[in-house]
Amino acid sequence: MKTKVKNICCIGAGYVGGPTMAVIAQKNPDIKVTVVDINAERIAAWNHNDLDQLPIYEPGLDDVVLEARNRNLFFSTDVDAAIDAADMIFISVNTPTKTYGKGKGMAADLKYIELCARQIAKVAKTDKIVVEKSTLPVRTAQTIKSILQNTGNGVKFQILSNPEFLAEGTAVQDLMAPDRVLIGGEQTELGMKAIAALVDVYSSWVPIENILTTNLWSSELSKLTANAFLAQRVSSINALSELCEVTGADVDEVANAIGKDSRIGPKFLKSSVGFGGSCFQKDILNLVYIAKSYGLNEVADYWEQVIIMNDYQKHRFAAKIIQTLYNTISGKKIAFLGWAFKKDTNDTRESAAIYVADQLIEEQANIVVYDPKVTAQQMQSDLNYLNTRSETENETFLTTIVDPYETCKDAHAIAVLTEWDEFKAYDWQRIYEAMQKPAFVFDGRGVLDHEQLRTIGFQVYAIGK
Length: 465
Ligand SMILES: NC(=O)c1ccc[n+]([C@@H]2O[C@H](COP(=O)([O-])OP(=O)(O)OC[C@H]3O[C@@H](n4cnc5c(N)ncnc54)[C@H](O)[C@@H]3O)[C@@H](O)[C@H]2O)c1
Ligand SMILES: O=c1ccn([C@@H]2O[C@H](COP(=O)(O)OP(=O)(O)O[C@H]3O[C@H](CO)[C@@H](O)[C@H](O)[C@H]3O)[C@@H](O)[C@H]2O)c(=O)[nH]1
Prior knowledge:
Layout: E1 7-11, H1 17-27, E2 32-36, H2 40-46, H3 61-68, E3 73-76, H4 79-85, E4 88-91, H5 111-123, E5 128-132, H6 140-149, E6 157-161, H7 171-176, E7 181-185, H8 189-202, E8 211-215, H9 216-247, H10 251-259, H11 280-293, H12 297-324, E9 333-337, H13 352-362, E10 366-370, H14 376-385, H15 391-397, E11 398-400, H16 404-408, E12 413-416, H17 428-433, E13 440-443, H18 450-456, E14 459-462
Parallel strand pairs: 1-2, 1-4, 2-3, 4-5, 5-6, 7-8, 9-10, 9-12, 10-11, 12-13, 13-14
Antiparallel strand pairs: 6-7
Bound molecules: nicotinamide-adenine-dinucleotide and uridine-5'-diphosphate-glucose.
């Protein structure tokens, strides 16, 4: 007989836990879904009456939350109560790159995962299915199982791997119509039963042929592999962008030409100032670390190159700005349009903007930033995290203005760091008139109309052109 899930708990109310559970709850009104977090401020924001105050910005998320919240979707800080009541527990906590000890700067830090496993082990009085939603190194399910099974209280656990493939900025749309849902589990009778229970949750809205089931290790490794392949495409086209610049080829034309080959495909070929986000770098470093730990040095080196190329692309963009501005940017105002790592999100983790700003501030430029969704406080904290200089110096060199025209006024140069749609619609003539001359634009996202800008009088640098 199929086990029907009635009560879900999700530990971690972040960029993944929040939207994923909101959609699961919306699509399964008969399942009670409780999202818990130790961050009380975040939970309060999820419960805020004003939907503009939700802790993350994702197009369409407010409507989903509005429909399901307080019906069968709840946000709470009472982690123990939610664990106790649930028959299925998702672990969706952060798994950042380790900043200390063995594997520092490479391996995933699994301390939050282990804490969750220990808390589940301590609290659980009835059998549970534990679902890894966080991105984890292959074979982590073994660790979780070992912690859970050594409690000695007779409770039985099944562990599933169900990695999340949503991209920020399109999270709701990705969750509503995923290319696939991946569920890995033990290939035993009880394991298969647990897999079937989770398939049942997703099949409320995902066509059954799009729900893939595998063994645990394939599922865990597929997540790291998917991100490595995606990031590798960006680094590949970025590597070619520099060759385009020196040969007269146009990177968008090259991308279009190769993307028409159905074996290559058109997506993820947009050259840029470099990929950011909380996942790509972390997951590839993790993959590299795992390969090295098995002694697979050539495999590790192959994937590490994706990160090396990405770092180079960010560095190259900043160097181009310095060089073009006559190798002296000390005291010059440089306007940044965008700080988020991509459009339609307020997330700034690993955003290229942070690294470009840091490099320009080393040359004592005054960076003034406008981003429609990122707060000034977040920008300062991103810069401070790099630890390059004192917080006071960062406050002096990086300021934020909430109006794009004011941001660009009197600037020597504008750098586009995020591809927000609104940038295309600005009155560029007005911006030009208020700038220092020559007025430079460095389009790190290839989003502006360069011909129009040149006609106005701008000197334009665009990646791969
Ligand atoms: N951000 C994405 O787009 C994305 C997409 C797919 C997969 N992932 C993966 O999903 C995982 C979560 O990522 P995220 O972006 O949602 O992270 P996040 O930092 O936004 O959220 C994680 C949340 O977990 C909470 N938390 C940590 N330990 C806890 C504990 N012991 N008990 C209760 N709450 C705890 C934190 O307070 C935080 O609010 C990561 O493994 C990430 O790699 C992220
Ligand atoms: O052609 C492209 C595509 C993307 N990017 C950049 O790459 C980064 C990542 O973009 P994207 O993948 O769209 O967003 P993420 O939210 O980081 O999503 C990735 O990381 C998630 C976390 O693991 C996965 O779930 C998603 O499937 C995977 O796309 C951003 O800085 C983009 O600007 C480019 O420069 N060029």
